[in-house]
Design a protein that fits this description.
Elements: H1 3-15, E1 30-33, H2 40-66, H3 72-78, E2 82-86, E3 89-93, E4 99-103, E5 115-118, H4 125-134, E6 138-141, E7 155-158, E8 161-162, E9 174-175
Parallel strand pairs: 1-2, 5-6, 6-7, 8-9
Antiparallel strand pairs: 3-4
Helix pairs in contact: 2-3
């Protein structure tokens, strides 16, 4: 379910040409949080430690992407690289499951054109929060429920689930990332 925030606010915005010129991280999905410390030595150690962990994660994701055939999934994984730090995280959605932290450093109202929420289940405050804060259409997908959990003026529900490019049960309810 964490996929919904990433897809809605970064991937589709950048891949569809909606990225803002002023957003240095427009095509980057992963960012690390920068901590605040009282002394410079603690800050430097924390930054170095966090950078090493972030770089290791970024390299693992890049290696996984490189092992795949060209396609939408590979493109998505290639966008999961650590490319900056984040000073302002904000939580959207429910308090526990269904809530996601989003880096707000380079997101301005007007940068986001649409949001995609995959797997809304019977709770989806994330869609309502995104619509309320950004006024953009939200496209909600879930083949396991019959209707959207949250109503919002510009939300569209589709009884569909994601499937792989060449795998999955042939069912009109199952869509690939490219189809979505």
């Amino acid at each position: 379910m964490a996929l919904r925030a990433l897809l809605g606010l970064a991937f589709f915005r950048s891949k569809l040409g909606w990225a803002s010129e002023g957003s240095p991280s427009a095509d980057c999905l992963l960012q690390k949080q920068r901590s605040v410390f009282r002394d410079d030595a603690s800050r430097q150690f924390s930054d170095l430690h966090g950078d090493l962990q972030g770089q290791a994660l970024s390299k693992k994701i890049a290696a996984l992407a490189d092992s795949m055939e060209p396609g939408v999934t590979r493109d998505l994984l290639n966008s999961f690289r650590i490319c900056g730090s984040c000073k302002d995280f904000r939580r959207f959605g429910e308090h526990l499951d269904g809530g996601y932290l989003i880096c707000m450093d380079h997101l301005a109202k007007g940068d986001i054109q649409a949001a995609y929420s995959m797997g809304i289940d019977d709770h989806d405050l994330w869609s309502k929060d995104i619509y309320t804060n950004y006024g953009v259409p939200v496209f909600q997908y879930d083949c396991t429920v019959d209707k959207a959990a949250q109503d919002c003026d510009s939300c569209s529900f589709y009884k569909s689930c994601l499937k792989g490019e060449d795998d999955g049960v042939e069912d009109p309810m199952n869509l690939t990332l490219k189809q979505v």
